[in-house]
Amino acid sequence: MTATIPLTEEALAVRLRALEDERGILRTLHRYSHCMDYGLTKEWSECFAPDGVFDVKDLSGKRFHRENNRKELAAYLASKKVPPERYDKHIVAAPLIEVKGNTATATSYFVAIGAGAKALEIHVYGRYEDTMVKTGGEWLIKERIATVEGRMIH
Amino acid sequence: MAANDLEDMQRRVQLLEDERDIGDVFSRYSHTIDYGRQEEWADCFTEDGVFDVFTVDGRKVHKEHGRGELFRYLGGKKLPPQRYDKHVLAAPLIDVKGSTAKAQSYFIMFSSVAGSAPFIGVYGRYKDTLVKEGGRWYLKERLAEVERTPAR
Predict the structure, then answer these.
(1) Touching check for A75 and chain B: CB below 8 Å?
(2) Contact assignment for B91 to A92 by CB distance below 8 Å
(3) With contact defined as beta carbons under 8 Å apart, do B74 and B54 qualify?
(4) Facing residues of A106 across strands?
(5) Which of A35, A54, A74, A82 could, after both became Cys, cross-link A44 (CB 3.0–4.6 A)?
(6) CA distance B111 to B83
(7) Helix, strand, or coil (residue B70)
(8) What does the pLDDT average to over B76-88?
């Protein structure tokens, strides 16, 4: 510990809060994956703020889809094939989280794994750029920009 | 700041430490299974720990009960240098309650056999029950739900 950091209860509380915020954000990122991959439509939409945005594009900027609130998000997931018909795994890696009060940004990698005709494969990967907000003690996604960098084309 | 604030902070730090330590158990589990360290892998479980592997349609793959059976199970597996596996655990959702915890996470196994091109051997979901004994977290039960393998 450096001498410039005051050893007070208040200073410890601030540092503890920072760790808890990062932990809360990570938990939302993971909960997002579980809810999406098992078709938990309502719970997945509630990983976002009520006016949360999910914007999925490729590297050229061409948009695959965009949802602008929980209702549109729930409708999007309801249109997807989910277990037991289809099992996918959305994995988040290398999260870089910056918290500023009750907002935060997070940049991370995503890899979606699924079953192809002959093998298990990486279906898509890319980067999430998230803006998060803390509401009622819980971190929610205000905007998720998903840039698809590689995609399996059958 | 009142004394109960310090107590509150201590409780919150304990929760973060417990989650970190459970994450360490998950990492230790992967390293020891992938490099065939039988005793250390069995030691990730409690003495009576259960490892139950089954498919999503309910077919039993294998089940071990107790460290002795766990030790023998890993002894029967192909290991480095014949086969290199990587059990990658992702998206852990850990809920600690005192000295017990529940966790749900993904597993994906990357493999290469006898120098083959790498492939995804299996993926699915772990549902774990953990207990803290003597200040250390152990798997009391690991249910491994296999969702997909290349043959399926």
Answers:
(1) no
(2) yes
(3) no
(4) A97, A130
(5) A35
(6) 7
(7) helix
(8) 95
User: Which of B152, B129, B12 is CA-nearest to residue A137?
Assistant: B12
Residue with structure tokens 């892998």? B41
Following DSSP, what letter does each residue of chain A receive, concatenated? --TTS---HHHHHHHHHHHHHHHHHHHHHHHHHHHHHTT-HHHHHTTEEEEEEEEEEETT--EEEEE-SHHHHHHHHHTS--TTT---EEEEEEEEEEEETTEEEEEEEEEEEEE-SSSEEEEEEEEEEEEEEEETTEEEEEEEEEEEEEE---
Q: Can you tell me the ipTM of this complex? A: 0.91
- What is the span of the domain harbouring residue B76? 3-148
Total domain count, chain B = 1
Does the CB of A16 have a partner CB in chain B at under 8 Å? yes
Residues of chain B contacting residue A21, judged by C-beta atoms under 8 Å apart: none
Q: Which residue is it, tokens 């609130």? A: A69
Residue A119 in contact with partner chain B when CB distance is under 8 A: yes
Q: What is the CATH number of the domain that holds B105?
A: 3.10.450.50
Rounded to whole angstroms, how far apart are CA atoms A120 and A125?
Answer: 14
CB contact under 8 A, A115 and B19: no
Domains of chain A, first to last? 9-151 (3.10.450.50)
- Nearest of B123, B149, B118, B85 to residue A113 by alpha carbon: B123
> What are the pLDDT digits (tens) for B4-33?
688 999 999 999 999 999 999 999 999 999
pLDDT higher than threshold 90 for residue A154: no
Nearest by CB to residue B123, choosing from A13, A34, A89, is A89
Tell me if B16 and A91 make a contact (CB, 8 A cut-off). Answer: no
Residue of B nearest to A20 (CA): B16
